[in-house]
Amino acid sequence: MASVPQLQRQFIEYTTSLHNEGYLDDQFTQLQKLQDESNPDFVVEVVSLYFEDSEKLLNNLATALQQKSVDYKQVDSHVHQFKGSSSSIGAQRVASVCVHFRNFCEEKNLEGCLRCLQQVKQEYILVRNKLEALFRRMMQLEQQILQAGGSIPMME
Amino acid sequence: MGLKMQSHHHHMVAVSLNSDQQLGTKRKYTSYVPRTHQGKYLALWIIAFGFAAVHVYRCIDAGHQQRIQEGLVSMCDQRARMLQDQFSVCVNHVHALAVLVSTFHYYKNPSVIDQETFAEYTARTAFERPLLSGVAYAQRVLNSQREDFESQHGGTIRTMANKEPSPHRDEYAPVIFAQETVSYLNLVDMMSGEEDRENILRARSTGKAVLTSPFKLLGSHHLGVVLTIPVYKSKLPPNASVRDRIEATVGYLGGAFDVESLVENLLGQLAGNQEIIVKVYDVTNTSDPLIMYGRQAQYGDLTRVRVSTLDFGDPFRKHQMTCRYLHKAPISWTAITTAFLGYVIVFLAGYMFYTGAIHIVQVEDDFHTMQQLKVRAEAADVTKSQFLATVSHEIRTPMNGILGMLALLLDTDLSSTQRDYAQTAQACGRALITLINEVLDRAKIEAGKLELEAVPFDLRSVLDDVLSLFSEKSRNKGIELAVFVSDKVPQIVMGDPGRFRQVITNLVGNSVKFTEQGHIFVQVHLAEHSIAVHDATSDSCLSGRSNGCQTNTLSGREAADDRNNWDRFKHLIADEEFPFQVLTSDGISQNVNLMVSAEDTGIGIPLHAQKLVFMPFMQADSSTSRHYGGTGIGLSISKCLVELMGGHISFISRPQIGSTFSFTASFKRCEQNMVTDPKRSLYDELPTAFKGLKATIVDTKPIRAAVTRYHLKRLGVFVEVVNSIRTVASVLGSGQPDMILVEKDVWLSGDDLSNIRASVFGHVLKSPKMILLATNITGDEFDKAKAAGFSDTLIMKPLRASMVAACLQQVFGTGKKVEQGRVMANGSVYLRGLLCGKKILVVDDNRVNRRVAAGALKKFGAEVECADCGKAALDLLQIPHGFDACFMDIQMPEMDGFEATRRIREMEEQQTSSSVDGSCDTGTTTEWHLPILAMTADVIHATFEECQKSGMDGYVSKPFQEENLYQAVAKFFESKPATNS
């Protein structure tokens, strides 16, 4: 069994690795900070809300872009939503693709929009996998740490 | 990160394009110069004025020609008239001869005229008839009378042609009298010549002088005409018939005009004879004019001719004179030169316009290009600042991670070496963050994005804070660090405390960095007062410089700005003995202009570098930065900040002596009732327990004493200053002091304190507390001081009111404990305090955002309710409601944040006005004004004004960050914290 500091370090390293790879930014750390005893599942709750919303939005976007005459205003508002929620949970790569997406929307560039939709989907799936893995890993680590009698380290 | 950067790049390009377009639409000035085809315009100009020149030439030339023509006319007419006159004179004379003949030959019987008489008479009167070669009288002889006649005259009648005896005819006209010149005509029948015959017939039928057509005269080869005048035997009535006349005719008087020599003579008398050719014609038969004078050939100037009619008195014959110039008229040089010179001038003017136009067009083009370049340069500058801002921000995020990790690392078990490494890394990281913040500040200032706050603050406590930052360093170096704020400066002013602190920190930081011994002295005065005193004392100080002014500074070392010594300071604080209430409380001016100076006795700034001091990234030289560190950006930021605060910064520096930086800044006066209880809510309160105590300061240096007094006065302590411990006793008249503060150097310089203490205060029950003031003190000295009687306490400089208070508390043992639990404003605990129990509405259409915002606010103890669109928010905010604040997303479908806010404000206004109308129900006539904060992801574009326009109170950038949230929320809740919690 690993020692508590070691586990704590692993815990931090894992979260940091997500940062370094650019999937998540500071905002996610902020989210983690918001989680406390009174609100123990805050991060999971928000992130699963995000997953639900995102899948809905991605579907909406796909349908909207398949229409014969594409309503770019609507597409734009979907992308705006998507960008907003992504930056709220700190999924910065998704958010930055959304910025491009909106530019294409403004230009009414269907090809660009479709390409961005693919990118956004990819990024989203990546970040979802990462987050899910993170949650699993964290649960594990937390349990281990708690078992070992340590406390969950907070990110600065 | 990469993607983000790219997106920013796109953004920036868009910005610059936009500015280009704006320029294009803005630049609509009218140009009065053709931009193309200047060459064509020039050609057109030249051609047009070419025609004009020709026209001018023609006009002038026409006048010239007319004058020539007029000359010709006058000459011709003159000649014609003279010729005519002379001719008629001759004719008249011949007439007279005719009368003579008729009178003396026919009326006298017998005739008294014979050939001799006639010849004699005519010869003697020939001068009267210069034009006539000769005159002769022919008698009319009918055929029947021929024989008688011939016999009477002794000869036969001969013909003119061959002088033979005349053949038989009806009538003859033989010459009976002749002038000698024509004596060969004697008895020649004048009617035998065709022309003469016709002439004779015509003459006798008309009774007038008649002329023949020109012919070659007998005896000369000149052209001539023959004049014939009839002689009647009786006087005829004027209306006699032709028949009567013929009947009455008795003879004919004739003469030959030698026209050629006549005209020749005449012309010879006149001027200008050589210039013109004169011809005289007989034009009785108009189709065949007969020349009388002049050569037949046409020569001379054929273009100009003048014809004058001649009247020789014979109505049957018509004569005329034609005149021509011999030479063609000369070309009019005046006309040509006038026209040509005019044309040249106009041509040159045209050329000037042409080159001018080309030049103007070129200059305009250059101007245009330069303007574009300027716009591009400005855009690039903005882009640079934005880039800096962005990059700095981007660097800060990972740096926070690094610092966080280091903090965690330092919490773990580390060997001392590892700890040292980690601490060094952390220190470096902090330094880097500071640098980045500075760069960010500068970029923000350059991009015009930095806005100053206007919140009430206590600048004395700000200065104390700054002092506390550097107290450790200054103590280590043994520098005297002090601050003094004039009493005239109000306690609370409105302004940006953070930025003010930043400037002061920067100046003091520099001073501390570059000063090894001596002092650093920060003073704050009212700018007006400071200037007034400066004016008043500048003279006296100039004279006082020689006699050791420099010793009168804070530490006794010479300072750069010698005016900053006690002589001046005395004046500045002079009024404070009797507080000068008018300036501070009349409220006429809403502005408080402060003059802040920071004086040090450091290494100074080399003269060559003094110009560069306020340039970013400039230090005196590279060795400076190697030796002292730092980037040199601080002063340039300070300058910008000072300018933003409506002041300006300057300095006086003397190498190896020190520098004095001073700046002015303008703050707003703060109304006391505007902030309910500013001291309580905003600032550390100074304890009031020492009010009314008396203190005596023993100090030889007046400025230092003034600083000490300043801090004590803030605590409400009455202060007296004396020069030495000996004199303490002399001021006892006003009562015994509660404490005596002694400077270390005064104490060391001699007086034994304990004796004096014993002797002076020995009889008093409660002896005053003895306090030693020192910048630094060694262990030995400390022991000695204790032994000498400073058992009470030692106050280490720099002095700060709160620190002095703490020490005094210790000395006097006042039981009152200062509430140390007060949380400093920048912690989340503080935020919790602000938000705890507040009811907050979060409006956002995005579920995730809403949840996060709510989570964040809940974490700080707020009670959060959510609305997913503007309408729902309006429903929830129907008055009365219990919300304390509202966070509003800006971009929402249907009704965006601005619109929703406007409606909420409308609702509130209605409510307020109606509650004023019927102010009965609760008695609370408070205005409804819900603080509404915009939430936006786009901080750059969402300017504060835009939010304010729609009635919002501020904005928070999304996603929420603690400090951000704190700054925004603090503004509202800070000022009225006591009302709800």
From TrEMBL, chain B:
The modification 4-aspartylphosphate is found at D889. It is found in: Endoplasmic reticulum membrane. The keyword Cell membrane does not apply. Residues 109-322 form the CHASE domain. SUPFAM superfamilies: ATPase domain of HSP90 chaperone/DNA topoisomerase II/histidine kinase (SSF55874), CheY-like (SSF52172), Homodimeric domain of signal transducing histidine kinase (SSF47384). Its EC number is 2.7.13.3. Keywords: Hydrolase, Kinase, Membrane, Phosphoprotein, Transferase, Transmembrane, Transmembrane helix. GO terms for molecular function: cytokinin receptor activity; hydrolase activity; phosphorelay sensor kinase activity; protein histidine kinase binding. It is an enzyme of class 2 (transferase). It catalyses: ATP + protein L-histidine = ADP + protein N-phospho-L-histidine. This is histidine kinase. It comes from Helianthus annuus.
